Amino acid sequence: MNRAIYLDGEGMRLMRPGYFTARVRQFHECERAFCHELLRSTTYRLIIEVGCSCYRLIGVKNDDCDYLGIDINPPRARRLKEDKGAVVRCEANKFFKRRRLVGEIMRRYDGRVLCILPFNFLGTMDHPMEFLTVMCQTPFDLALSLFSTSETATAARLEYYDRCGINVQAVERTDDCVRLDCSNGFQALAFDPCVLTSRISAFGFRLNEAMYFDICNFLHFSNQRV
Asked: What Cα–Cα distance (Å) separates residue 40 from each residue in 15, 46, 98, 199, 221?
């Protein structure tokens, strides 16, 4: 259901800057700062941004690092040669299940690959925990940007979805997440970072860095199985 909505008008508005509220822009600013600092302190040769929209995070990478975006509704310009960037049209689940391709990417970039799930991407997947399991079976390092489960963050999400024309009918809070149930069938989750850390660590990842804010949280994991 979420996939269909992202390909429709309401989903398109979710990634248009004109619909961003002040607190969504704050999320993006914190995300860019986190990624910028992360990529200055590591030596990744390829950044994979899942749900990249229009090369949203390409500006945070180092000049000698390549960029690959994955999106079901990609921009018209599929290549930015000067910025060493490209975008492929593909569902994230299908991309990361292609084991031969994943292995070739690791060989080409000497294993120095970071996969970024930006701007609460995980929380808008149709089956987020199933997708996370697929992701954690790849050899890539992993970075996640998440909405917080705080009341402030929930209010920010409600304001954002209202501006995008998405009517939230219910807010459900559990020990694991805060879920927004919308009238059009869209569901958006904000996960507790401790829950995600525990789940991801079980696949052999180590939490290297975390930043927590009232609106958003950021996690960076290294894959210890490689």
From this structure: 27, 13, 30, 27, 16
β-pair type (141-147, 113-117): parallel
Share of the chain above pLDDT 90, in %: 69
* Residue carrying structure tokens 């090369």: 55
Q: What is the pLDDT of residue 185?
A: 81
Enter the pTM of the model.
Answer: 0.91
- Distance CA(160)–CA(213), nearest Å, equals 18
Q: Which alpha helices (H) appear in the chain, and where do they start and end?
A: 2-6, 9-14, 22-40, 92-96, 99-108, 128-136, 151-163, 193-201
Q: What is the mean pLDDT of residues 7-29?
A: 76
User: Residue 85's closest CA among 98, 67, 101, 97?
Assistant: 67
Q: C-alpha 197: how far from its chain's center?
A: 15
Find the distance separating the first CA and the last CA of the chain, reported in whole Å: 35
12 by Cβ neighbours in 10 Å (0-12 / 13-18 / 19+) ranks as middle
Let me know how many helices (H) and strands (E) the chain has, helices first. 8, 11
Phi, psi of 79, deg, nearest 5? -135, 140
Model pLDDT, residue 15: 63
Show the tokens assigned to 32. Answer: 């860019």
How many other β-carbons are positioned within 10 Å of the β-carbon of residue 124?
Answer: 20
